Amino acid sequence: MKKIIFLSVAAFLLCSAFITSDGDKIPSATVKKLDGSKINSSTFSNDGKPIIISFWATWCKPCKKELDAIAENYADWQKETGVKLIAISIDDARSSSKVVTDVKTKGWTYEVYIDENQDFKRAMNVNNVPHTFLVDGSGKIVWSHNSYAEGDEDKLYENVQALAKGEKLKH
Question: Rounded CA gap, 147 and 131, in Å?
């Protein structure tokens, strides 16, 4: 019986890493800009083009690897598809000062926000990082992926390309 429960839970967790929230809009939560001012997440937009929302933390090595891997080709991705990446740090007030340092050191050109109270994280049902979402041009969440392994950015980009062409995503 324990084995069946364990396998059921494992299967659910594996599947949930790729569950989409088709039709769900970006929820409303207040996040901080790097300059300390605040913005509501429901205002995130990209003129009808795809948006990648990536939840990360300064202490998360896989998060930084993913954002670094995307950074290598981000300018080309933007040129081809118009995609915008929004990186959401879940660092709390004690460690959020490291976010600006990391962004500058890495040279990331993404929009970066800090979710110190983790309200946006909870609203997006993020349990651990990295957790990446893809939002279509109308603001609907159409794909999500939890964790990072080398090469995951290629699948993400394939999905961005499909969205930019107006195609439905294959999960």
Answer: 6
